[in-house]
Amino acid sequence: MFEIVVIIATVVVVAVAIILVLAATKPDTFSVQRATTVKAPPERIFPLINDFHQWGTWSPYENKDPAMKRSYSGAASGKGAVYAWEGNKNVGSGRMEILDSSAPSKIVIKLDFFTPFEGHNTAEFTMLPQGDATNVTWLMYGPSPFMGKIMHVFINMDRMVGKDFEIGLANLKRLTEK
């Protein structure tokens, strides 16, 4: 019986060591980026992102918790606009603040997650005109602390968050190509 316990303990220690080594090899930062081409001028897309009150029309996160509590403060839109949320386990709680708003080409947002995991990231939206269309890019990046690296051993952040970005960009495209 003792031999079985020793074997199990050894296997557990080796598994934990492997996970820690794999986590240590993960980068110190992460980024997730998706882009799409929208047949609309940037002036039609920009206001939907620059005003947090408009996010309910296109953001994939707005539908993950119908009972989510939202609050708005600061500027009505653009630099200084603040949006905070508190919801179920699918959305957690957090806060966004627009740090830079360069109409109609770029919006930079400070993105703070409080639950279920704390994270402090940056989101950027860029709108680059290309003839009668606009290339819209949604980028999120930030530090990856060691606990985040351990999670990245098991979860592909790019695939998980990237799906949501693709949905959001498709929603923006649908709304602005009308």
Task: Write the SSE topology.
Blueprint lengths: L1 H23 L4 E10 L3 H9 L18 E6 L6 E6 L6 E10 L3 E10 L3 E12 L2 E11 L2 H9 L2 H20 L2
Helix pairs in contact: 1-3
Give the strand order of the largest sheet, numbering strands 1, 2, ... along the chain: 1-7-6-5-4-3-2
Compressed to H and E, one letter per element, the order equals HEHEEEEEEHH
Question: Which value, in Å, is the CA radius of gyration?
Answer: 20 Å
Low-confidence stretches: none
Shape: elongated
Mean of the pLDDT scores?
93
According to DSSP, the number of beta strands is 7
Care to describe what's here?
The chain has 178 residues and is α+β, with helices and mostly antiparallel strands. Helices cover 34% and strands 37% of the residues. The protein is built from 4 helices and 7 strands. It has helices spanning 2-24, 42-50, 146-154, 157-176; strands spanning 29-38, 69-74, 81-86, 93-102, 106-115, 119-130, 133-143. It has a 7-stranded antiparallel β-sheet with strand order 1-7-6-5-4-3-2. The chain is elongated.
